[in-house]
Amino acid sequence: MVDRDALLTELSELSATATSDDGAVSLSVNTDGVLTRLRLTDAVSGMAPAEIADAVLRTYVDAQRESAKRTGQLLAQVGTGGYLMDRLRWRMQFEPPSVPVPAAPVSAASAPDDVVLKDRSSDAAPEAPPAGPVADDDWYDEGMRLGKAW
Questions:
Q1: C or N terminus of the chain, fewer CB within 10 Å?
Q2: pLDDT bracket for residue 127 (50, 70, 90)
């Protein structure tokens, strides 16, 4: 028989820590794979932003894999099937896409569109909302919208 309270306590206290190969990045995640701690050493001062981002992402994936493995081991007591176990197996196999690291620092203005760290501060401002309240009939008559509802 599984001690439910003990299992829940172990899951809530679970933390997995990973460190990048060069020691520049160290981080921890909880049982859900959520980042709970991030530490960067002075080694990142000599790295390009894309290198830092890549090191953080890869270290984060390593910590998530360890978290998924340990969570799966704890939950195996109650069974190995179902959605949750499938998600844990997926987390253990996830491999982020490789991001090419530029040889020289790239300015935000010349960064390619697919770079995660793209500076979006100069993007066009969102449209202003319509002045005054909008009647329900007007709202529904216009059909489905893909913009923010609030």
A1: C
A2: confident
